[in-house]
């Protein structure tokens, strides 16, 4: 009895460990600073506040945002605005990331039905809660939309897979949520119809189909097709296929310094696709609908539906985003789908095994998942730090510029956080040419749109409240641009006992500056102390500015 209690305590600790570490990173490194589409939530608050009448106010939740209708994001943004008095983007991040706990709960409910030892569940949270997700994790709007839609779609598939009548009615509610959380939500409707038909629930399939048609009609009512997606002209079929497999295998994007990075994800993506497809075909051909052998149980239906959704999503994303290149498909915000495919495949495989005969297998699986989690966190921690520095530079530049995006005299939409640089804003704006010249060597290169500044010797500042920024100064305006830090590969780090490499790189995009001449400096923030130097160099911007992207929000 005592041994059983100790074992269960250990299993519980291991399940909670990656979750606690993940939310520690969120707590420690998140900032209440909007990024890109986050500003659309400020536009929504203004729209909601200025709209008169109950029905028109409700309609503001469902207005189009790019190709999506993001009512879920907007509801929680309004709640946070009412509670906090302004938009607190960190709260939105927490809302979005908490939906991952809902996804984990769904996986647990499926696992529980297989009656395996809880030890075999432990790898799942280690695979799910890790920093490959960093872009969604630390981005308020994206966390709610991209994690929220996963919860609602997986919840919908779980509910449809159950024969319980009450679950079907709840599924109709979830169908509404998937429609108005993200644009890819409606792809779950044909999948759910297939699952209902495989269960020979023809009456339910008619009801669900009718609801789905209504929701799709309402979704596309007054819909405007976005024009900012790049064309796929000139992209070959082979490139699309390789991109598709790379997308599926992106969970194994663990070789950032290797020339074979994309090839590795393609190979693993092919393996995941083949095994998933074989399992899906096996389930379909063994269903009662085709050969009347037996009814598929809920875990089997859930696994089949999840495979269809994840592979279908990979096809759509690959086709619409392949123009950004193969590396673009390895972007952090897309990796959640590859991670979920791996977890679903794991559940599918162990569901067909008698694990009572191989209890020992839990230990290498747990160790492998822990190793994967550590490696993923190690590789992507630098992205978290660099993203934080980018957000800090956004905030500093807004404070330096009296004209800020989407503000209102009557409503406090958002308050920028206090930063260690706030007391140094006047120093940042000092004439750069009057500063002492920096003695460290910086290499400079450029292409048609970007200037690259790189240093290989300056000791990296490891505290999260320290940073290195590039001063870009003209006669009328001063910008503070972020730098990116690099970490050592894991094998080197273990040998020398250091995570950060010396030096930094900064990418100055000409489109971010008005045409003119800019002098360059460097700003080094160490806690509350700061130093600034002149780089004895300049930047000439003289390009035709791209037309502003038309938005529908």
Structural class: alpha+beta
> What's the total number of strands?
9
Described by strand count, sense and barrel closure, the largest sheet is: 4 strands, antiparallel
Q: Topology as H/E string? A: HHHEEHHHHHHHHHHHHHHHEEEEHEEE
Q: What number of structural domains do the residues give?
A: 2
Number of helices: 19
Overall pLDDT metric? 90
Task: Characterise this structure.
It is a single chain. With 553 residues, this protein is α+β, with helices and mostly antiparallel strands. It has 2 domains: 2-24 and 35-354, no CATH class; 418-541, Immunoglobulins (Immunoglobulin-like, Sandwich), CATH 2.60.40. 53% of the residues lie in helices and 10% in strands. The protein contains 19 helices and 9 strands. The strands form 3 sheets. Strands 6-5-8-9 form a 4-stranded antiparallel beta sheet. A 3-stranded antiparallel beta sheet has the order 3-4-7, with no helix packed on it. A two-stranded antiparallel sheet has the order 1-2. A hairpin with a 2-residue loop joins strand 8 and strand 9 (529-541).
